[in-house]
Q: What sequence folds into this?
């Protein structure tokens, strides 16, 4: 298989690294959550790619179609998307609360609060 | 068989109950229903544990789809033991909860207890299921609920701790999902028993190695294995006391169980330990965790943080048992999994009593408190004996089995490490005892009354269990042995 034939896997790796980098390197909590979303999405593409069968049709029973894509990864990704949405929602809710409590959502400014003593 | 039909209800009763609890008004009604739900799960889980101790494997196919097509609940002694631990610890923690939760959470308690039940249901789901993707879903259910629970802490730093845990926990869970994706792409199945059959043929494949690595790292994050432990101290320190008690007793244990299930059942010990150097990696990380955790705990002023760092060290003990990859080693890991749940629950409960009265967990504020709250601080000291590993306590039993396992594997030098970290535990517990009993109360300090009986009775119940299972080890050792047997297979003994 040529390297272009597995381009979807390259996309997965690139997206995964961009997302992971954002999670680690960005101080802003919204950006962290965006990175986290990207990171999760790359895994969804990995799953969907696994279900693709060359020449396969959508997995719906119709006459004259013999080869179908594997529907199981699609179902798994649907569930995983729901999980991802829930995580983003909880993360954003926490960010709102942190903004209310501290007046900032820059993690660099807040890190000292956690380790130090606070009245 | 009736018991098999009841299997899904261990998880489903807390899950469905959480919906009802969420809309209940007031304080005592949500608590009562939560307790009933957890009690039900604990009783069924105990019956299931009793039925699986002899090596029986129970299987419940969801929607009557036969596995591997449908999702299957597959219970052997290892699942049953962890499920029983989670359900019973949740029940015990709930009996401790009402007064403490009332002092920490102002608004109505329905939603709080609903989150708690979701966390319990998630943890139980992880332990019971025989489907790899199902593990991920339940893992996220329990994690999301715990982020919410931790954010309920009174201190505003609880929000930061919850956010950090959310980021790290999600990265860990996604790593786990990547591992499952690789396994599915290679084998075309998600059923664990099916995976175990198909993987040996692929043992030379790099993707299998990557899958194992991703799963170990993902679970290592949830388990708070040393370099991945950063979320734990803050999450435990700033969560409401009741949440800390529950999470310290159960959450990391369930992550350890998932790791064991994948390493031993799905990949098989021959592959994990003989083909890959997993044993060395885990042993190094475990020893580093034991040392670093105990070391940092020795200098903590905030006592909840101190116990949290001690938890990291105790996770090290469990992983050390696993890394030996022998029957005795895994038995020791399961024993410590049970025993540490008892020890840490007792310690956090006693500390929770102090915080309930004084509102502070700082070492300085504890000076001379032993005379004012004798029952609470005696409970703390006795549970402390257990974490040090004094004979007649459960802590001694787990350390004894770890030492046996080390000697059996010819690793004599490990005994020295175990003794040194026990001495470190002695040091950080002694600091508290010294402050509470041997220092004078500072001038002009407020007088505090003894903690209320509603908190003391559950605390002392767990403390007494610490000693009971330290003297009568038949039940715990046979259960841990059966769990190890279930994972390693009959008569398995490996390098």
A:
């Amino acid at each position: 298989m040529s390297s272009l034939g597995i381009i979807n896997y390259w996309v997965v790796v690139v997206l995964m690294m961009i997302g992971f980098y954002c999670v680690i390197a960005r101080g802003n909590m919204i950006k962290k959550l965006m990175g986290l979303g990207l990171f999760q999405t790359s895994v969804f593409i990995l799953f969907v790619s696994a279900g693709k069968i060359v020449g396969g049709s959508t997995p719906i029973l119709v006459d004259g179609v013999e080869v179908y894509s594997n529907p199981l990864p699609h179902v798994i990704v649907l569930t995983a998307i729901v999980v991802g949405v829930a995580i983003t929602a909880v993360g954003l809710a926490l960010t709102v609360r942190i903004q209310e409590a501290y007046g900032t959502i820059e993690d660099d400014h807040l890190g000292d609060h956690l380790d130090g003593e606070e009245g | 068989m009736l018991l098999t039909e009841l299997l899904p209800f261990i998880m489903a009763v807390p899950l469905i109950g959480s919906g009802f609890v969420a809309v209940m008004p007031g304080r005592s009604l949500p608590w009562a229903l939560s307790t009933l739900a957890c009690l039900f799960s604990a009783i069924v889980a105990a019956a299931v544990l009793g039925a699986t101790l002899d090596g029986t494997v129970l299987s419940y196919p969801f929607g009557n789809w036969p596995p591997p097509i449908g999702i299957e609940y597959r219970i052997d002694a290892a699942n049953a033991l962890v499920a029983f631990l989670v359900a019973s610890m949740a029940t015990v923690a709930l009996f401790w909860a009402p007064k403490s939760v009332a002092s920490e959470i102002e608004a109505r308690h329905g939603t709080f207890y609903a989150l708690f039940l979701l966390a319990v249901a998630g943890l139980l789901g992880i332990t019971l299921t025989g489907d790899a993707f199902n593990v991920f879903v339940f893992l996220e259910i329990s994690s999301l609920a715990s982020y919410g629970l931790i954010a309920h802490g009174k201190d505003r730093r609880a929000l930061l701790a919850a956010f950090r845990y959310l980021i790290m926990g999600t990265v860990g869970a996604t790593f786990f999902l990547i591992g499952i994706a690789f396994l599915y792409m290679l084998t075309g199945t998600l059923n664990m028993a099916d995976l175990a059959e198909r993987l040996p043929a692929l043992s030379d494949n790099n993707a299998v190695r990557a899958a194992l690595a991703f799963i170990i790292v993902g679970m290592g994050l949830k388990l708070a294995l040393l370099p991945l432990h950063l979320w734990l101290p803050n999450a435990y320190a700033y969560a409401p006391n009741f949440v800390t008690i529950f999470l310290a007793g159960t959450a990391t244990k369930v992550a350890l169980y998932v790791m064991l299930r994948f390493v031993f059942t799905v990949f098989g010990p021959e592959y994990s330990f003989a083909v890959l150097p997993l044993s060395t990696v885990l042993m190094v990380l475990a020893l580093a965790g034991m040392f670093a955790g105990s070391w940092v705990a020795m200098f903590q002023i905030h006592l909840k943080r101190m116990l949290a760092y001690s938890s990291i060290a105790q996770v090290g003990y469990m992983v050390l048992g696993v890394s030996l990859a022998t029957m005795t080693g895994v038995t020791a890991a399961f024993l410590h999994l049970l025993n540490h749940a008892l020890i840490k629950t007792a310690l956090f409960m006693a500390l929770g009593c102090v915080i309930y009265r004084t509102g502070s967990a700082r070492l300085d504020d504890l000076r001379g408190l032993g005379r004012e709250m004798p029952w609470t601080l005696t409970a703390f000291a006795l549970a402390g004996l257990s974490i040090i590993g004094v004979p007649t306590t459960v802590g001694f039993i787990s350390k004894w089995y770890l030492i046996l396992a080390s000697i059996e594997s010819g690793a004599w030098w490990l005994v020295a490490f175990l003794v040194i970290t026990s001495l470190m535990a002695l040091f950080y517990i002694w600091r508290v005892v010294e402050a509470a009993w041997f220092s004078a109360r500072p001038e002009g300090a407020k007088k505090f009354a003894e903690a209320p009986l509603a908190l003391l009775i559950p605390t002392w119940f767990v403390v007494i269990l610490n000693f009971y299972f330290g003297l009568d080890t038949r039940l715990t050792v046979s259960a841990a042995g059966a769990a190890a047997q279930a994972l390693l297979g009959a008569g398995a003994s490996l390098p």
